Amino acid sequence: MRQGRLVGLLLCGTLALAGCTRGTDADVERAMDAVNVIDESNLGDIMLTVADPEEAVAYFSRSLREHPGRIDLERGLAKSLVRARRPEEAVKVWKRVMEHKEVTDEDRVDYADALIRVGDWERAEATLNSVPPTYETYKRYRLEAMVADSNRDWKRADAFYETAAGLTTKPAAVLNNWGYSKLTRGDHAEAERLFLEAVKEDPSVFTAKNNLVLARAAQRKYTLPPIPMTQVERAQLLHTMALAAIKQGDVNTGRTLLEEAIETHPQHFEAAVRALRALESNASL
């Protein structure tokens, strides 16, 4: 009798232990699922920031084949395609995101960005108009400014550029865009001011330096501004200024600037040499 009770107790203990084991396994599986989600999310973030764009495209494409219809993966693929300079493909993926029930205003802004990259200004404007005015971000207003520029609505463009610049701690890119807008309107002095401001915000942006030289040359200011530049950049900026001078009819100034660019460059400056030869060839005709 005592033996029977002992066997019963042992069975109960075994069953209880089995129950505990099942509970532990389930907890471990849930914990592992959570870790996998975190790892996947971290990997996705890495792919969208520091990874090679084409590698990121391959990663999100592969993930979508394994998990079709997931909006986070569709979103990641679309952003990666933009980074890889494949905007036409990105637009197609963003369209799928737009049809998803979990689409966000940020998605709509990113879709508008892709549309602008392929030159579909009309749909980009319509997409931005679908975003409520309460959604205020740097990217939204930068795109709004670009759309206003395309419509030659200068007043709205200036307002949007100003708002965008105030919504970021790194305004160099939007200041450069704003300056280029002013340059195309013929407001060269204001363009020069904005380009100079962009360079001060981020001295590594060569495009802003080049645009600054163009704005100065348009005012026949054929000297380089006092901004940080490498020797190679100095030569390139002199080359830009020379071509602008020649285009405006200041041929002798252009020739002098080309010679200075060739002398300044630490290596053989083929583009400047070619331009100087072409200039001398035309002069001898």
Compile the SSE list and pairings.
Elements: H1 2-49, H2 53-66, H3 71-83, H4 87-98, H5 105-117, H6 121-129, H7 138-150, H8 154-166, H9 172-185, H10 188-201, H11 206-218, H12 231-247, H13 251-264, H14 270-283
Helix pairs in contact: 2-3, 3-4, 4-5, 5-6, 5-7, 6-7, 7-8, 7-9, 8-9, 9-10, 9-11, 10-11, 11-12, 12-13, 13-14
What does this structure look like?
The protein has 285 residues and is an all-alpha fold. It has a domain at 30-103: Alpha Horseshoe (Serine Threonine Protein Phosphatase 5, Tetratricopeptide repeat). The protein contains 14 helices and no strands. It has helices at residues 2-49, 53-66, 71-83, 87-98, 105-117, 121-129, 138-150, 154-166, 172-185, 188-201, 206-218, 231-247, 251-264, 270-283. Residues 1-23 and 30-38 have low confidence and may be disordered.
What's the pLDDT, averaged over the residues?
A: 87
Oligomer: single chain
3D shape: globular
Helix content: over 70%
Measured distance between first and last alpha carbons: 125 Å
Task: Describe the structure concisely.
This protein has 285 residues and is mostly helical. 78% of the residues lie in helices and 0% in strands.
Task: Provide the descriptors you would attach to this structure in a database record.
285 residues; mainly alpha; Serine Threonine Protein Phosphatase 5, Tetratricopeptide repeat; 14 helices; disordered N terminus
